[in-house]
Amino acid sequence: MIRISAFKLRQAAYFLRCGKIIAYPTEAVYGLGCDPLNESAVQRILELKQRPVTKGMILLASNFQQIEDYIEINEDIKKRIIPTWPGPHTWVLPAQSWVPEYLTGEHQSIAVRITAHPIAAKICENFGQAIISTSANPSGSKPPKTILQLKKYFSPQDLLMISGTTGDLNQPTTIRNGVTGERLR
Predict the structure, then answer these.
(1) Rounded mean pLDDT of the chain?
(2) Which of 6, 49, 68, 137 could be stapled to 141 by a disulfide with Cβ–Cβ 3.0 to 4.6 Å?
(3) Is 44 helix (H, G, I), strand (E, B) or coil?
(4) Top-confidence residue, 3 or 97
(5) How far is CA 153 from CA 31, 32, 85, in A?
(6) 183 assigned to some structural domain
(7) Backbone angles phi, psi at 87, to 5 degrees
(8) Per DSSP, what are the bridge partners of residue 160?
(9) Beta-carbon neighbour count of residue 7 at 10 Å?
(10) CB burial class (10 A; 0-12, 13-18, 19+) of residue 49?
(11) CA–CA separation, 102 vs 38, rounded Å?
């Protein structure tokens, strides 16, 4: 069983509340995360990754309530996505009008996932809301699956690194359009 200490959970929540970045294991690779409503923290992740803001970000949550205020969906869409969660399924859904452009990028939608990874889920539960989730690598580089690979890209001075085992997926999670069901990645 994958575990995370109570101290590390409190430390992760503290870092997130202070606008700092964490790195944590997910279903497939290590992810970088921050408070999605802290624009400077999101911008710092984009800088670390050398990723353009136009692509948009993924929100990771431990339950539906943590993402429902960000999205605008009907019952048909809900019936399509809810059975896939928790799990390694990311859905791109229409964003509420208030959702900042630094989260949606050039889109009117936002990518969301209810994680099945026990460490990532505990981090979201302890923080009390969704967090940013993007692979913990500079754009164009191979995403890390271990803490040692993560340390090749980033310094512990840049972020809080949470050790743990990634899930069994060989590739980052599938991304689908929640309105059409079309596979995007």
Answers:
(1) 95
(2) 137
(3) helix
(4) 97
(5) 12, 12, 30
(6) no
(7) 170, 180
(8) 22
(9) 8
(10) buried
(11) 10
Contacts of 21 (CB under 8 A, 6+ apart): 15, 32, 33, 34, 41, 44, 45, 48, 158, 159, 160
For residue 182, is it within any domain? no
Q: At what angle do helices 118-127 and 6-17 cross, to 10 degrees?
A: 60
| Distance in angstroms (rounded) separating the CA atoms of residues 4 and 142 | 25
One-letter identity of residue 110? I
Amino acid residing at 22: I
The verdict on residue 65 lying in a domain is: yes
pLDDT digit string, tens, across residues 150-176? 999 999 888 999 999 999 888 778 899
Q: Where are the beta strands (DSSP E) in 124-179?
A: 131-135, 160-161, 174-177
CA distance 27 to 115: 8
Look at residue 162 and tell me if it is in a domain: yes
Number of separate domains in the chain: 1
CB 126 within 8 A of CB 13: yes
Residue 74 has pLDDT above 80, yes or no: yes
Give first-to-last CA distance, the chain, whole Å. 29
* Residues present in the chain in total: 185
Range of the domain at 143: 6-177
- 126: Cβ–Cβ under 8 A, 6 or more apart, which residues? 9, 10, 12, 13
Q: How far apart are the C-alpha atoms of 37 and 67, rounded to whole Å?
A: 12
